[in-house]
């Protein structure tokens, strides 16, 4: 892992990942929509001693622009070997329930646009015959819950997509990592009641960096306890689960 | 399909946290906030200010102020702890520019390897740069370097009335001087530029010398101020008439060693039951501490974290004071009023309420950097007291009378109870400062000392 492209570089988890990667001397290309915020992050990483940080302002949710994004990315960070897809939204479930456009928007950002991007980048990696595709989904994608099933179904679909991609790229020697964080204390979850369940984005970032660097499990639950929590959640019979209020 | 936001931050304004409990370091007083706005980007600050009502907001960093100067009872806080981006650092000149929420620990982490150090540091590195400015903090080198505010070159401040204001000693100098030591009330600092100090080693060449009277302490201080950059003393507040303490003095070592030390030690896991800290346990601690330190060899090479931040080694040490929390009393009295310090120590010893964290230091005569700066020429004494309700508050009022009678002052960053009259006496020019307070900002401390008169 020497050259990493971060898709959604302004997200809370991505910012922590970036600070860790530069300590290892990794070169970065940061992609996000807001160019001023991108520059603030690039200045921060540069001041902290990054070797090379490039930025690319682009609206990743705009699928029609993806073909160009790959060309721009290749131009800005030639021979990149890893991508981390880190963007996502978590719109209010209550509002999504009452608004079709909002529900579609949530599905579009978190799944459709992500799948489109991965399709474009998968060909690049397949041809390269090495490298790593990592994407942040969520434990919310493991089971549909009344409190977040729109967000959850988009993340669940993304996890399935990554699973298929992993199998496809196995022969080419490309690793595909599905990152499933539990709730994390970032701007995305502000507004929720944050109890002890919420992880520090620094801890999550540490796990992600380790998973991207090593030949370790390609499905990462972070913090690790969620692997066991979700095993239990998945095992609850549907007849009982539908009655649970969470 | 419309192209939706790429991150949720961008598609809606900074969100209000439902959690409304924020503590100061002393965990006293306990207050409820109406809302805590968490800013993730400095560009969100104008919107937060805009939507606030008059006198409703206060910026909050790492909550290391001891009393209520970082709290805003019944109103709102802007939590700036995510605003931690560095903007630039010139390794030639030692000038660092960063967002308000960057901690001094982070500054050290990037500065030391390049041969730079904080120009002034308080007793913990877990404070933000903006917090260090807002309280115009001082350290063991006050007699040489003045306060943190003396090393600020420039600031960008969001105001609810004027928008973003850049200020420095040349540009908007009045707002600059009001913001240094301004308790976060003059606007929200977006970023600041500070001048670091050159070092060849992060280690401190330290000497520890026991002393047995205030006169001896003063003699050591005046002898040492010339040759030592850092001086401060521990004082045993149970020693009463037979005063004793340990004087520390040191300089940065000459032999190159730019080691960064950021290992964290154990953390206090939960709020201790209050009774664990009593006069017997504290007395025993003081005896052991004095025994160890006074028997140490006189000179040693100390890593900077043990020299400046001994308490940072224990995470959340404030929890040992129990559910009720604690108060710190820090005053300064004029140089020629050493009798006042003796009187304070006598009152504290008689009350049997003192604790182990007693610090004595002689401030230098540097002119204050800010309008409300606390440090001034004289002797400063700082002591922790577990909060035991009325009795503790009454003791502090007795201490106030001694400080008042000799023309001394109290430190707002450590205070949770001083009266309006005490504040008047400590900061006679606060009415001048008041004209720079942002109309939308206020704090529990500010209302307590300026209202009801």
What does it look like?
The complex is a heterodimer of chains A (246) and B (453). With 246 residues, chain A is an alpha/beta fold. Chain A has nine helices and seven strands; from the N terminus they run βαβαβαβααβαβαβαα. Chain A has a seven-stranded parallel beta sheet, with helices on both faces. The longest helix of chain A has 29 residues, at 100-128. Chain A is globular. The N and C termini of chain A lie far apart (39 Å). In chain B, strands 15-12-14-13-17-18-16-19 form an eight-stranded antiparallel beta sheet. A five-stranded antiparallel beta sheet of chain B has the order 5-6-10-8-9. In chain B, α10 (338-351) packs antiparallel against α11 (390-405). Residues 1-13 of chain B have low confidence and may be disordered. The A-B interface holds A 8, 10-12, 32-34, 36-37, 40-41, 43-44, 47-49, 59-63, 87-91, 101, 104-106, 108-109, 112, 186-188, 190-194 and B 1-11, 14-19, 38, 40-43, 82, 85-89, 98, 110.
In short:
The complex is a heterodimer of chains A (246) and B (453). By secondary structure, chain A is an alpha/beta fold.
**Helix content percent band of chain B:** 25-40%
Record field, number of beta strands of chain B: 19
Ends of chain A: how far apart?
A: 39 Å
Q: Based on Cα principal axes, name the global outline of chain A.
A: globular
Oligomer: heterodimer
Give the rounded overall mean pLDDT of chain A.
95
- What fraction of residues of chain A sit in β-strands? 5-15%
* N- and C-termini, Cα separation of chain B: 61 Å
CA-based shape of chain B:
globular
Taking pLDDT < 50 over at least 5 consecutive residues as the criterion, the unreliable ranges of chain A are none
Question: Which chains have the largest interface?
Answer: A-B, 41 and 30 residues
Characteristic terms for this protein:
heterodimer, A: 246 residues, alpha/beta, seven-stranded parallel sheet, 9 helices, 49% helix, B: 453 residues, alpha+beta, eight-stranded antiparallel sheet, five-stranded antiparallel sheet, 19 strands, 21% strand, globular, disordered N terminus
């Amino acid at each position: 892992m020497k050259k990493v492209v971060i898709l959604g570089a302004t997200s809370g988890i991505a910012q922590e990942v970036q600070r860790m990667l530069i300590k290892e001397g990794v070169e970065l290309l940061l992609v996000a929509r807001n160019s001023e915020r991108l520059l603030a992050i690039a200045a921060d990483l540069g001041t902290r001693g990054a070797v090379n940080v490039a930025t690319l302002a682009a609206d990743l949710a705009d699928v029609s622009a993806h073909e160009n994004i790959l060309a721009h990315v290749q131009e800005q960070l030639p021979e990149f070997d890893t991508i981390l897809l880190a963007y996502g939204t978590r719109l209010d479930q209550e509002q999504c329930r009452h608004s079709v456009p909002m529900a579609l928007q949530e599905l579009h950002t978190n799944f459709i646009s992500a799948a489109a991007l991965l399709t474009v980048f998968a060909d690049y990696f397949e041809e390269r015959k090495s490298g790593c595709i990592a994407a942040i989904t969520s434990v919310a994608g493991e089971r549909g819950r009344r409190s977040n099933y729109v967000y959850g179904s988009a993340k669940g679909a993304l996890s399935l997509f990554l699973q298929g991609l992993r199998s496809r790229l196995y022969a080419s020697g490309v690793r595909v990592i599905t990152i499933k964080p539990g709730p994390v204390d970032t701007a995305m979850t502000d507004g929720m009641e944050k109890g002890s369940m919420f992880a520090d984005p620094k801890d999550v970032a540490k796990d992600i960096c380790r998973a991207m660097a090593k030949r370790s499990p390609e499905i990462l639950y972070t913090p690790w306890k969620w692997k066991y929590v979700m095993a239990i959640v998945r095992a609850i019979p549907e007849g009982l689960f539908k009655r649970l209020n969470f | 399909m419309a192209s939706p936001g790429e991150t949720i931050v961008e598609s809606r304004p900074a969100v209000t946290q439902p959690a409304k409990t924020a503590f100061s370091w002393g965990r006293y007083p306990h207050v409820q906030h109406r809302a805590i706005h968490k800013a993730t980007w400095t560009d969100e600050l104008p919107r937060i200010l805009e939507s606030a009502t008059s006198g409703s907001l206060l910026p909050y960093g790492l909550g290391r102020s001891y009393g209520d100067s970082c709290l805003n009872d019944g109103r709102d806080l802007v939590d700036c702890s995510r605003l931690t981006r560095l903007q630039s650092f010139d390794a030639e000149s030692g000038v660092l520019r960063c967002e308000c929420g960057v901690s001094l620990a982070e500054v050290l982490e990037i500065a030391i390897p390049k041969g730079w150090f904080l120009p002034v540091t308080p007793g913990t590195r877990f404070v933000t740069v903006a917090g260090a400015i807002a309280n115009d903090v001082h350290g063991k080198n006050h007699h040489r370097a003045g306060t943190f505010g003396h090393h600020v070159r420039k600031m960008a401040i969001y105001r609810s009335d004027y928008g973003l204001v850049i200020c420095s000693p040349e540009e908007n100098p009045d707002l600059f001087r009001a913001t240094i030591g301004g308790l976060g009330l003059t606007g929200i600092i977006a970023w600041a530029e500070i001048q670091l100090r050159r070092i060849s080693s992060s280690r401190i060449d330290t000497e520890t010398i026991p002393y047995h009277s205030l006169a001896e302490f003063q003699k050591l201080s005046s002898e040492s101020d010339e040759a030592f950059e850092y001086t401060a003393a521990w004082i045993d507040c149970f020693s009463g008439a037979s005063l004793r303490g340990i004087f520390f003095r040191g300089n940065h070592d000459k032999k190159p060693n730019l080691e960064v030390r950021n290992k964290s030690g154990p953390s206090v896991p939960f709020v201790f039951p209050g009774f664990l800290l009593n006069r017997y346990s504290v007395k025993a601690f003081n005896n052991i501490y004095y025994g160890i330190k006074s028997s140490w060899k006189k000179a040693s090479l100390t890593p900077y974290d043990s020299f400046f931040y001994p308490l940072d080694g224990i995470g959340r040490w404030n929890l040992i004071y129990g559910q009720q929390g604690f108060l710190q009393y820090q005053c300064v009295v004029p140089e020629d009023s050493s009798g006042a310090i003796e009187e304070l120590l006598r009152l504290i010893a008689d009350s049997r309420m003192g604790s182990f964290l007693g610090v004595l230091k002689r401030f230098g005569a540097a002119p204050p950097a800010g309008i409300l700066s606390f440090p001034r020429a004289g002797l400063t004494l700082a002591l922790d007291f577990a909060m035991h309700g009325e009795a503790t508050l009454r003791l502090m009022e007795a201490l106030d009378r001694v400080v008042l009678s000799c023309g001394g002052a109290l430190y707002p960053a450590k205070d949770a109870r001083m009266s309006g009259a005490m504040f008047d006496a400590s900061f006679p020019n606060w009415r001048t400062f008041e004209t720079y307070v942002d109309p939308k900002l206020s704090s529990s401390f500010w209302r307590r000392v300026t209202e009801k008169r």
